[in-house]
Amino acid sequence: MIRKNISLYEEDMKKIARIVEKHEGNLSAAMREIIDFIDFMLRKFGSLEEAKKIEKRTKGVCLPSGMLNWFLTYTNECLPDEDAAGSIEEICAIESVSDLAEIADIGFAVDIKVDADDARNPSEVTIRLSGERTHTEFVAKIAACFLAENRGLAVEAVFRHTAFTTVKLKKEAKGEGDYKKVRESLIKHFGERHIMMQEILSKRRFWNAMIKATAEWGDVERYKYPRLYR
């Protein structure tokens, strides 16, 4: 056993008071438990900085990868509501465009690089994303929606390649119809199914009846839901 003298401030003792109490005042036992915990966090996350990001994740929802991929597939080419896009700030404190890279820290397999002519009030932004394709598409859409709603940037172009995706945004000249142009740019590049899905959701019973009335629907059910016909 190695014996060392350490100095602790009163604030430090307050932070570990519950652990010391657990060990009935045995400070050495409390320090050994803290060391074991730190070792576990370092082995699991690689660094204390990565481990601290757990707090951000716990404010959201943890999903198994299969469920997450299902969600990403069925929301593909659909835009989030304005409030939903803005809620990303509940997890990521986005003060400048470079902070958008933190979106990947909430559980997406994506690397993000953001370039802008001005970090806080940009007129041109380029976002380059690489990683798992469905994750990349979703993060690109969320980042574009956030910049559109909060910085007035319209999507100028989206380049989708096998290994990466690049999104270019530019601020529209001030004038009437600015918001419409920004929204239309999002629909064009990320919301091809958005209007269709909004229509279906607003008239569920009608579209359910319409689809089931088609002659092929029975065959579709047999193919997609074979257990119903066993």
Keywords:
alpha+beta; four-stranded antiparallel β-sheet; single chain; 50% helix; 3 domains; 13% strand; 230 residues; 12 helices
Number of alpha- plus pi-helical segments: 12
Q: Order of SSEs, N→C?
A: HHHHHHHEEHEEHHHH
State the distance separating the first and last CA atoms. Answer: 68 Å
- CA radius of gyration is 25 Å
Summing up helix and strand content along with how strands pair, one would put the structural category as alpha+beta
Strand percentage, roughly? Answer: 5-15%
Name the overall outline. Answer: extended
Question: What summary fits the major beta sheet?
Answer: 4 strands, antiparallel
Identify low-pLDDT runs: none
Q: What is the arithmetic mean of pLDDT?
A: 83
Give a quick precis of the structure.
The protein has about 230 residues and is an alpha+beta fold.
Helices, strands, pairings?
Layout: H1 10-15, H2 17-22, H3 27-45, H4 48-52, H5 54-58, H6 65-74, H7 82-86, E1 110-116, E2 124-131, H8 133-151, E3 153-160, E4 164-171, H9 178-190, H10 194-202, H11 204-212, H12 217-224
Antiparallel strand pairs: 1-2, 2-4, 3-4
